């Protein structure tokens, strides 16, 4: 057995130790050394070679191990036996892992049932889908709409079958593209209470303008002349407010504009639009009204793209003060008072529909000039009236332009209408003050102290009489205070 410690080497030879204290050096010449010394020479050279190469290798040669009594054949046999044992253990491990995998693949009765049910589910699902496909590709029936089966005939050729399937499948999505009801408005009222025309106006950027700032958040401004515009035209038109936003955003604004629903007859929102070509369209053909008597005013061209001949386009209002609402009133008043059967030819007679107020004013000036000339000619040609001296008085009273007469009458009606609205608002306020206190508790329901419907109606009528008396008293007091 050999061991190197620093530069001191101990050599085992013939059962005794001998210490060599000479430093190891490659320049030492030990040619005449004995056999044990030659082994030490090989040992030293191997150590030096290992240091030079820098590779991890043994410094004990076979010659040195043989002289030390090591049997290489026995060592090889032991190595082979160890290798075979290692390989057999690897195989056993592999076999155990494969057996574990086999054990994992084993299923319980519950797993088998689940797998069976899943297979049946897949079979029934595929069968149901196939059945639905065959049913949707069947021949047309008598109650199928004509628009659906347009250009597609009956027959069970593959092409016709696929076309009918596609047509029926695409019609399923119209539920999300069409308004919730086929008629968005109820039938018009009877003739004495029916307005001659229907006016559909948008809310956003026409009557109001909303904007957001970091300081104040969302703020909504009402356009100048909005109240007068709605109040004055409500005597001629059935006004329908058709908002471009959803109901949850626009309903409160609409209630602020007309809290007692005196001007606006109906409110429609984005939910009532038709979704087509990736835009929301206000289809006025679904209003349950004659299209020839419907006028729509909007700021977005996509909103009236289905009926552009009924539209008066307007530029979006940016929140700055203007008088464009008031400028629209003369033309809309003329249109409602002429008893036209179809408004579309009149609207399309203007060269630029965005400037209808200006063009209409020019036409009125020309008509007024011609009307005055005709009136002067008539008064001068009537010699009998001239002899009686009443020609000037007749000419002055009869020379008033018809549209001016209509405007004067409209102003009178508007004043009376606004007085009625103010009275109605005062009555509503009094009703809220006096009828709002009439409530019933759970104890009243349990003990049966709730009056019958007839008794409740009688109580309401008595309360209404009291409110009317109270209103008349307040009215007299205000009149006395004014005097």
UniProtKB/TrEMBL annotation:
PROSITE patterns: FCP1
Keyword Thylakoid appears in the UniProt entry: no
Pfam families: NIF
Gene Ontology biological process terms in this record: protein transport
Comp. bias regions, Basic and acidic residues: 76-95
Alphabetized SUPFAM superfamilies for the sequence: HAD-like
Iron-sulfur found in the keyword field: no
Topology class, membrane: Single-pass membrane protein
Signal peptide: none
Residue span of region Disordered: 76-110
UniProt keyword list: Membrane, Mitochondrion, Mitochondrion inner membrane, Protein transport, Transit peptide, Translocation, Transmembrane, Transmembrane helix, Transport
FCP1 homology domain span: 192-335
Subcellular location: Mitochondrion inner membrane
Gene Ontology CC terms: TIM23 mitochondrial import inner membrane translocase complex
InterPro entries the record matches: FCP1_dom, HAD-like_sf, HAD_sf, TIM50
Highest taxon of the lineage: Eukaryota
Subunit annotation: Component of the TIM23 complex.
Protein purpose: Essential component of the TIM23 complex, a complex that mediates the translocation of transit peptide-containing proteins across the mitochondrial inner membrane.
Similarity-based family: Belongs to the TIM50 family.
Protein name in UniProt: Mitochondrial import inner membrane translocase subunit TIM50
Organism of origin: Zygotorulaspora mrakii (Zygosaccharomyces mrakii)
């Amino acid at each position: 057995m050999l061991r190197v410690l620093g530069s001191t080497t101990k050599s085992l030879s013939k059962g005794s130790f001998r210490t060599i204290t000479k430093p190891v050096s490659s320049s030492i010449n030990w040619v005449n050394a004995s056999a044990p010394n030659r082994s030490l020479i090989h040992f030293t050279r191997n150590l030096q070679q290992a240091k030079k190469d820098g590779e991890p290798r043994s410094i004990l040669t076979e010659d040195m191990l043989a002289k030390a009594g090591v049997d290489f054949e026995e060592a090889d046999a032991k190595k082979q036996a160890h290798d075979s044992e290692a390989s057999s253990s690897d195989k056993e491990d592999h076999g155990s892992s494969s057996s574990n995998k086999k054990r994992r693949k084993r299923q319980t009765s519950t797993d088998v049932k689940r797998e069976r049910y899943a297979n049946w589910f897949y079979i029934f699902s595929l069968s149901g889908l196939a059945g639905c496909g065959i049913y949707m590709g069947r021949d047309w029936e008598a109650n199928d709409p004509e628009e659906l089966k347009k250009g597609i005939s009956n027959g069970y050729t593959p092409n016709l079958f696929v076309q009918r399937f596609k047509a029926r499948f695409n019609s399923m999505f119209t539920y999300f593209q069409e308004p919730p009801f086929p008629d968005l408005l109820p039938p018009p009222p009877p003739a004495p209470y029916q307005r001659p025309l229907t006016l559909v106006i948008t809310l956003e950027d026409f009557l109001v303008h909303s904007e957001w700032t970091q300081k104040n958040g969302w703020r909504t401004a009402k356009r100048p002349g909005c109240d007068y515009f709605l109040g004055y035209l409500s005597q001629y038109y059935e006004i329908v407010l058709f908002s471009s936003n959803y109901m949850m955003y626009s309903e409160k604004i609409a209630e602020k504009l007309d809290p007692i629903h005196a001007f606006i007859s109906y409110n429609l929102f984005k939910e009532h639009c038709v979704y087509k070509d990736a835009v929301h369209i206000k289809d006025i053909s679904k209003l349950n009204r004659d299209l020839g008597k419907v006028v729509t005013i909007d700021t977005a061209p996509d909103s009236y793209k289905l009926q552009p001949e009924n539209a008066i386009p307007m530029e979006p209002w940016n929140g700055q003060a203007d008088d464009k609402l008031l400028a629209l009133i003369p033309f809309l008043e003329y249109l409602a008072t002429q008893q036209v059967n179809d408004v579309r030819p009149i609207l399309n007679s203007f060269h630029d529909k965005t400037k209808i107020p200006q063009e209409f004013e020019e036409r009125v000036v020309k008509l007024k000039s011609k009307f005055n000339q005709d009136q002067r000619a008539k008064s001068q040609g009537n010699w009998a009236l001239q002899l009686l001296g009443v020609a000037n008085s007749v000419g002055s009273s009869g020379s008033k332009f018809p549209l001016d007469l209509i405007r004067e009458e409209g102003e009178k009606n508007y004043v009376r209408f606004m007085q009625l609205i103010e009275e109605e608002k005062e009555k509503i306020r009094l009703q809220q003050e006096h009828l709002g206190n009439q409530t019933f508790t759970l104890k009243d329901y349990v003990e049966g102290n709730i009056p019958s419907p007839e008794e409740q109606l009688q109580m309401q009528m008595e309360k209404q009489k009291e409110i009317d008396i109270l209103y008349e008293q307040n009215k007299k007091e205000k009149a006395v205070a004014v005097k």
